[in-house]
């Protein structure tokens, strides 16, 4: 056995009745004749746990001498933009040596650890916590020459594709005050879309990079699962977790990916990623000069024809897709019927694993665990639960119910996700990329924090084309391709995003397609009346 058994100390708090109390949680009872032995064993493991608990944590130590943190503060009312898009303002200057991101300004979603910068997580369920380490992506953008200028508001516990749920305040769309900036990387997309930073780094577990990018007229890239290390980033479901950039151009997205991708020696999700520092996506993309000769593109029928997709959004994206023909590509309509199963598979994964994560039951990965965050947000109490946004409460309720009533369901959903991944991969043997609308609608008006159903309604259905690729892990990028009228005000035109999806580890093809379209056409002139 792994625990060396010794005599139980007199101050050990474990009592005999604690053994049965533990088993009561799963509805079984202990043989009375075994009670003494299991009491002794439980007391021994308690002492082992106390010993480990007292050890200092082991986290990467940021180089504060090379990268000092300047002027960390919560923004004043006068400093805020687009409602409450900033979480914290500060400055960390990048290296003076020439790098891919030299001279660029970068902001970070407020779930990405920056040492000495309090993290709000979009919530008031628990107080702000202050990391002692930098996420890998932070170190890498600084090494690439970027200046990190702040953290940006995220939605409440990252559980919304709307932008009114953060406890710190609403984030407005840069194209229309009162309208959603999308979520959960709401602040970052608004700030980049509004021209106040060059790049935002966000996270995406169901569309949280791509949906706000589509709503705010940005390019947003969710790379292959594990392409960018998740080290130092607050996790939801480790299977669905992705980190990636938001920018105004495909070129800046490519430069950022060249800077932040690759295994960091910590996150086991990134073991299959290209070697850090060796990708040259931006240079290779530019060398193609926007040509797509020989490129084969599939228009995914199920991504366009879902009944929730607004007819005007469908039209804008469909017309944008066929413009690839003028760039030398072959464009065909293709079908994967199981595409429509993706949201259901994602829901099961996210609810079960997400609830376990929220309850502090992380396990099964080799990587960096943010133990300070766990100590801050646990244990749950009735008071903290009631302060939660409706989506967070729903994740916990759904997850506990599913785990109890449907044993093995998480595993089956994961297996089905792999089957769906293989179906896409088979199609990618014939086609370089697939196209579809990123979001089914343009940005809606903000919702209300009323009843749970009222609070959740504005996000329902938004991820029908995005969450599936969190399940399968495929790289997916949204680019703006035009404007369509708002459902509320016909005279108001809002951005439409087209999603470009590639085979696993085929970021180069996704970038090449997006760059070619962006280089040839001005999306701001594509306005549907």
What does this structure look like?
The protein has 529 residues and is of the alpha/beta class. The protein has helices at residues 16-24, 35-53, 136-143, 186-193, 210-215, 250-260, 281-287, 301-305, 311-322, 342-358, 371-377, 382-387, 390-405, 409-427, 452-456, 467-472, 507-520; strands at 70-73, 86-92, 105-109, 147-152, 172-173, 176-180, 199-203, 219-222, 243-247, 296-300, 330-334, 433-437, 476-485, 493-502. The protein has 2 domains: 1-55, no CATH class; 70-525, Alpha-Beta Complex (Amidase signature (AS) enzymes), CATH 3.90.1300.10. The chain contains 17 helices and 14 strands. It has a 12-stranded mixed sheet, with helices on both faces. The N and C termini lie far apart (71 Å). GO terms for molecular function: catalytic activity.
Short description:
The protein has 529 residues and is of the alpha/beta class. It contains 17 helices and 14 strands.
Number of helices: 17
Beta-strand residue percentage: 5-15%
Number of strands: 14
Q: Residue-averaged pLDDT, rounded?
A: 95
For the sheet with most strands, the description reads: 12 strands, mixed
Question: The CATH topology of the largest domain, please?
Answer: Amidase signature (AS) enzymes
CA-to-CA gap between the ends? Answer: 71 Å
Q: Identify the CATH homologous superfamily of the largest domain.
A: Amidase signature (AS) domain
Q: So what's the overall shape?
A: globular
From the coordinates shown, what is the CATH architecture of the largest domain? Alpha-Beta Complex
Overall domain count: 2
Helix amount:
25-40%
User: Could you say which structural class the secondary elements and strand pairing correspond to?
Assistant: alpha/beta
- Ranges where pLDDT stays below 50 over 5 or more residues in a row are none
| Name of the CATH class of the largest domain | Alpha Beta
What strand order characterises the main sheet? Answer: 1-2-4-3-7-9-8-13-14-12-10-11
Radius of gyration: 24 Å
Protein name: Amidase domain-containing protein
GO molecular function, one term: catalytic activity
Pfam family, one: Amidase
């Amino acid at each position: 056995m792994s625990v060396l058994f010794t005599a139980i100390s007199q101050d050990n708090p474990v009592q005999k009745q604690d053994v049965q109390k533990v088993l009561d949680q799963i509805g079984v009872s202990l043989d009375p004749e075994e009670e003494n032995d299991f009491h002794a064993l439980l007391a021994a493991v308690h002492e082992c746990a106390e010993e480990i608990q007292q050890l200092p944590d082991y986290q990467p130590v940021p180089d504060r001498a090379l990268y000092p943190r300047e002027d960390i503060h919560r923004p004043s009312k006068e400093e805020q933009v687009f409602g409450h898009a900033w979480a914290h303002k500060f400055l960390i200057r990048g290296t003076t040596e020439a790098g891919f991101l030299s001279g660029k300004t970068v902001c970070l979603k407020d779930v990405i650890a920056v040492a000495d910068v309090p993290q709000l997580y979009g919530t008031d369920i628990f107080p702000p916590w202050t990391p002692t380490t930098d996420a890998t992506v932070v170190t890498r953008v600084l090494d690439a020459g970027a200046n990190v200028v702040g953290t940006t508001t995220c939605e409440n516990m990252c559980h919304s594709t709307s932008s009114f749920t953060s406890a710190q305040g609403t984030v407005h769309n840069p194209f229309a005050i009162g309208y959603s900036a999308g979520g959960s990387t709401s602040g970052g997309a608004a700030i980049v879309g509004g021209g106040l930073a060059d790049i935002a780094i966000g996270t995406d577990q169901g569309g949280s990079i791509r949906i706000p990018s589509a709503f705010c007229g940005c390019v947003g890239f969710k790379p292959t699962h594990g392409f960018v290390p998740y080290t130092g980033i607050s996790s939801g479901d480790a299977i669905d977790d992705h980190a990636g950039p938001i920018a105004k151009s495909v070129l800046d997205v490519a430069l950022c990916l060249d800077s932040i991708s690759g295994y960091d020696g910590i996150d086991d999700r990134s073991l299959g990623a290209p070697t850090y520092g060796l990708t040259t996506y931006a240079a290779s993309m530019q060398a193609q000069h926007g040509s797509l000769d020989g490129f084969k593109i599939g228009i995914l029928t199920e991504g366009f024809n879902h009944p929730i997709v607004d007819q005007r959004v469908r039209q804008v994206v469909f017309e944008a897709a066929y413009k690839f023909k003028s760039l030398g590509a072959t464009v065909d309509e293709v079908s994967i019927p199981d595409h429509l199963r993706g949201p259901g598979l994602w829901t099961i994964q996210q609810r079960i694993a997400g609830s376990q994560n929220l309850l502090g039951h992380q396990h099964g990965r080799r990587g960096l665990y943010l133990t300070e965050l766990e100590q801050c947000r646990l244990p749950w109490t009735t008071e903290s639960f009631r302060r939660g946004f409706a989506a967070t409460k729903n994740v916990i309720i759904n997850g506990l119910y599913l785990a109890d009533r449907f044993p093995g369901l998480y595993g089956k959903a994961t297996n089905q996700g792999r089957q769906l991944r293989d179906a896409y991969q088979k199609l990618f043997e014939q086609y370089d990329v697939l196209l579809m609308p990123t979001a089914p609608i343009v940005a809606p008006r903000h919702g209300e924090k009323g009843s749970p159903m009222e609070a959740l309604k504005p996000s329902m259905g938004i991820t029908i084309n995005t969450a599936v690729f969190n399940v399968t892990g495929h790289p997916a990028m949204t680019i703006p391709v035009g404007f369509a009228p708002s459902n509320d005000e016909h005279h108001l035109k809002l951005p439409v995003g087209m999603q470009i999806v590639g085979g696993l580890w085929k970021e180069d093809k996704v970038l090449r397609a997006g760059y070619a379209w962006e280089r040839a056409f001005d999306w701001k002139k594509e306005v549907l009346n």
